[in-house]
Design a protein that fits this description.
Blueprint lengths: L2 H12 L21 E5 L2 E4 L4 E4 L14 H13 L8 H13 L5 E5 L2 H16 L3 E5 L17 H4 L10 H4 L2 E4 L4 H11 L3 E6 L15 H12 L2 E5 L12 H4 L6 E4 L10 E5 L1 H4 L18 H14 L4 H23 L4 E5 L2 E5 L9 H5 L3 H13 L2 E2 L8 E2 L6 H16 L3
Parallel strand pairs: 3-13, 5-6, 5-7, 7-8, 8-9
Antiparallel strand pairs: 1-2, 2-3, 4-10, 9-10, 11-12, 12-14
The chain binds 4'-deoxy-4'-aminopyridoxal-5'-phosphate.
4'-deoxy-4'-aminopyridoxal-5'-phosphate binds next to helix 4.
Pathway: Porphyrin-containing compound metabolism; protoporphyrin-IX biosynthesis; 5-aminolevulinate from L-glutamyl-tRNA(Glu): step 2/2
Catalytic activity: (S)-4-amino-5-oxopentanoate = 5-aminolevulinate
InterPro entries: 4pyrrol_synth_GluAld_NH2Trfase (IPR004639), Aminotrans_3 (IPR005814), Aminotrans_3_PPA_site (IPR049704), PyrdxlP-dep_Trfase (IPR015424), PyrdxlP-dep_Trfase_major (IPR015421), PyrdxlP-dep_Trfase_small (IPR015422)
């Protein structure tokens, strides 16, 4: 028995499913979740001391690699000054100014503690601002687990096959309209019917919770013009893509400006942080200046702010993003080559330092339907073969992968060597 197996058995007694977030339970791939103890750079070390090259990066935050010295130092120093004050602090201004500089569509920003809080509040704000109840989202997009947003969601909700969770009153869910991702015609149709009742469109500008699916040309631009035409708020959920697919997120990469943006993951450098921000006119609808209520005991926490700020500062190093993109290219081109050679039908997607691979005959994956029709048996076998060889990928076919600045050419090469053996098992 490995120590992870022991710990998993023990964990299930006191913790539902043995985990504090469902996708960690390996439901998507079967087997025992690995319990980790320590992480450094591109590596994580499990409870038995085994080393893994990590492409999950705590589900996105660790873009600099684990335990980056500057982030660690800033966090320790802040902790020494006090863990929480519940008052305004100067570091919150520095953080807000930094965010505005990197993401220019954000004129004002409010810090929260998770991506879920950010999206939940952004839609409340859009509803309050427009005086409308309905919201439009896309099938397979995941925006956290707020009631209105857990309708046809991706990520763990998709892996578990319960996109509509019990516990959400139908009266809430009926206000959430869901259409196909990358299908602008379906959005136009819904708006033609009831555009004047729709408060907002919320979208993952690169979908990362049904594997990795970038927007097709014209999709984000189309959403922008539909929102303009109907007076609806356009929300880019950049919890995953922010500071990740480009320094200024997907809105920079695809050059489309939303009205509101939600952020998380990278922005906290590994600490629990989220944020939402955007047009001053909309943001001033939030309390205490405006009527829409939102609050948080630990929001803008000084230790979390210090960690996030240090991470964002490190990301401004020249050449850092180019290296990330190049490493993704090396990894995906190498994977494709090896899959082709082994005769395994597979295709890949990438957007900046986010990537995905799909076991499918389709030359290209751009839709939720295609993502869900991939060969899951191939994925599971490949997954466990990689895990065994010390490569940690997201334990679900519906999650993207993340490259970090700490991944070296050698790490990629080792990953590709492992993949070659893993593909051989699928033949
Ligand atoms: N939005 C997106 C796009 C996400 O990927 C996630 C989490 N994976 C969330 C929102 C929710 O963030 P959190 O888990 O921090 O609540």
């Amino acid at each position: 028995m490995s120590r992870s197996e022991d710990l998993y058995t023990q964990a299930q007694i006191s913790i539902p499913g043995g985990v504090n977030s469902p996708v960690r339970a390996f439901n998507g791939v079967g087997g025992t979740p690995i319990f980790f103890e320590r992480a450094e750079g591109a590596y994580m070390f499990d409870a038995d001391g085994k080393r893994y090259i990590d492409y999950v990066g705590s589900w996105g935050p660790m873009i600099l690699g684990h335990n980056h010295p500057s982030v660690l130092e800033a966090t320790i120093q802040a902790a020494q000054r006090g863990l929480s004050f519940g008052t305004p602090t100067e570091v919150e201004i520095t953080m807000a100014e930094m965010i505005r500089k990197i993401v220019p569509s954000i004129e004002k920003v409010r810090m929260v503690n998770s991506g879920t809080e950010a999206t939940m509040t952004a839609i409340r704000l859009a509803r309050g601002y427009t005086g409308r109840d309905k919201i439009l989202k896309f099938e397979g997009n995941y925006h956290g687990h707020a009631d209105s947003l857990l309708v046809k969601a991706g990520s763990g909700a998709l892996t578990l096959g319960v996109p509509n969770s019990p516990g959400i009153p139908e009266d809430f869910a009926k206000h959430t309209l869901t259409v196909n991702y990358n299908d602008i015609e379906s959005v136009k149709q819904v708006f033609a019917e009831m555009g004047d009742q729709i408060a907002c469109i919320i979208v993952e500008p690169v979908a990362g919770n049904m594997n990795c699916i970038p927007p097709v040309e014209g999709f984000l631009e189309g959403l922008r013009s539909i929102c303009d035409e109907h007076g609806s708020v356009l929300i880019f959920d950049e919890v995953m893509t922010g500071f990740r697919v480009a320094p200024g997120g997907a809105q920079e990469r695809y050059n489309v400006k939303p009205d509101l943006t939600t952020l998380g993951k990278v922005i906290g450098g590994g600490m629990p942080v989220g944020a939402f921000g955007g047009k001053k006119e909309v943001m001033d609808y939030i309390a205490p200046v405006g009527p829409v209520y939102q609050a948080g005991t630990l929001s803008g926490n000084p230790v979390a702010m210090a960690a996030g700020l240090a991470a964002l500062q490190q990301l401004s190093q020249p050449g850092l993003y180019d290296q990330l993109y190049q490493r993704v290219d090396t990894l995906l081109n190498g994977l494709q080559e090896r899959a082709d050679r082994a005769g395994i039908p597979m295709t890949t997607n990438r957007a900046g330092s986010m990537f995905g691979f799909f076991f499918t005959e389709e030359p290209e994956v751009t839709t939720y339907a295609q993502a869900t029709q991939c060969n899951m048996e191939h994925f599971k076998t490949f997954y466990h073969a990689m895990l065994e060889q010390g490569v940690y990928l997201a334990p679900s076919a519906f999650e993207g992968g993340f490259m970090s600045a700490a991944h070296s050419e050698e790490d990629i090469q080792q990953t590709l060597d492992a993949a070659e053996k893993a593909f051989a098992k699928l033949v």
